[in-house]
Amino acid sequence: MEQPNLGLHKEEKTYGMLCHLLAFSGFIIPFGNIIGPLVIWLMKKDQSYFVDMHGKESLNFQISIAIYGIISGLLAFIIIGIVTGIALFIFWIVLTIIASIRASEGNGYRYPLTIRFLK
What we know:
- By secondary structure, this protein is mainly α.
- It has one domain (14-104).
- Helix content is 65%, strand content 0%.
- The longest helix has 27 residues, at 49-75.
- The chain starts with 9 loop residues before the first helix and ends in a 15-residue tail after the last helix.
- The relative contact order is 0.19.
């Protein structure tokens, strides 16, 4: 869901963008894709509605992707999981970049196929 740019401070846009980009820390740190956005969200959620919104959205998406990844891993025993795993990986990278760009522009973003754990 896109929202208009409401004259946000540059710092808010930066932290909103980091909520999404820190998901890539999962390449270096186990569960970094969840821990990175969680840290930013916990630090800034009370100071900015914008960061709170992006932090929740990023966490919901990262948790959902982790669940989908586990399911793909289990399905790998019947070959289909390999295909879904590759598609899921590409889906994750592309949407994380799109969300980061939207946040840096000061707009809201809602990931598709996301389970809303945090409301």
